[in-house]
Amino acid sequence: MDIINIDATDETPKVILDAENGNFEFSGKSLPEDVTTFYNPILDWLDAYALEPNDKADFVFKMDYFNTASSKLILDILMKLEEINDEHEGITVEWHFREDDEDMEEAGEEYEDIVEVPFKQLSY
Questions:
Q1: What predicted TM-score, i.e. pTM, was given to this entire model?
Q2: For domain 4-123, which architecture applies?
């Protein structure tokens, strides 16, 4: 399976989706001009991953900021993880947020309420 490895920019997050090495990370800021163009390859990758998921996988989110359009696509990612977990189990979402960042903490809590995937809320 191909690896997605996107370096962070001022407008897009770092994304690593590497099933072979069990490395799944979203970090940084997400405010791309065209969220669909940025996130569609990620959603397509998750569809392919769903066919042969790892026995255990921690999807790590260390977002500093995301705009409203990105929040919808992040929810789409989490809903795909929920679908995969419904079939195969073993997926955990780690939602990291700065200790003083109430917005990111609340965003993680809201996502946790919406999707049925084991969530770990971790402050740093």
A1: 0.96
A2: 2-Layer Sandwich (3.30)
